[in-house]
Design a protein that fits this description.
It holds the Pfam family BPD_transp_1. This protein is mainly α. The chain has one domain: MetI-like fold (Orthogonal Bundle), CATH 1.10.3720.10. The protein contains 13 helices and no strands. Helix 3 crosses helix 7 and helix 10 packs antiparallel against helix 13.
Amino acid sequence: MKKLFIYALLICCSLLFAAPLFWAVTTALKSQAELYLFPPKWIPSALQFSNFSDAWTIQPFNLFLKNTVIVTLLATIGQLVSCTLVAYGFARFEFKGRNLLFLVVLATMMIPWEVTMIPQYMEFNYLGWINTLKPLIVPSWFGSAYFIFLLRQFILTLPRELDEAATIDGANKFGILARIIVPLMGPPLILVGVFQVMNCWNDYLGPLIFLNDQSKYTLTLGLSQFKGMFGVDMQSIMAITCLISIPPLAVFFFAQRYIVGGIANTGIK
């Protein structure tokens, strides 16, 4: 009975969390007449699959998708490279003030992005990067304190004897990182990659601040174009929301076992 109660509770919670997604899908498939019925109609009488193609072609979403893929891909590569190098330095190199410097890096996690938003805008404006994709890509190549912490904790669990054996064989520090450490960092690197993909794909405030030209818009900014001064195109919003939610859901579905493994093996042993 106890197990039955737990499973029933989990099913109820799952339905509660899945309800908004189900509502978005059914709203995207409704006709205009059924959109604002009260009480609401959960299941449409006739499925309007043409709503998806119509919503995609109203705005240049092919261009928005291209911009989003470029930003997500380059920013994710930047995070993986920069955070791996910094985490390796904190985990394996002995130098004066290492712990203090690591605390300073962690302290940056307590500063909300809203505090640095205006200084960053002024800096990017001085560099001439406003209305380009560079403000959305370049900062990722300087690392993230949270990801650096995750990778450092995992590297600390790896025995130093591996480094010593590689050194005896003639490997330098970079060779040890590339040939010994990185191949063993599969789960945490996948974890960092998935989190970064989610952050970039769903980012709205960053593109809203730094981009002005519609040709530079990402998917989230393109989605906001359906909300006008005199009304909201709810069908198109829900249709595009369902479409742009597919890639992150697919990434999370295929990488979830690596995510769990990466979290479980980071800083616990």
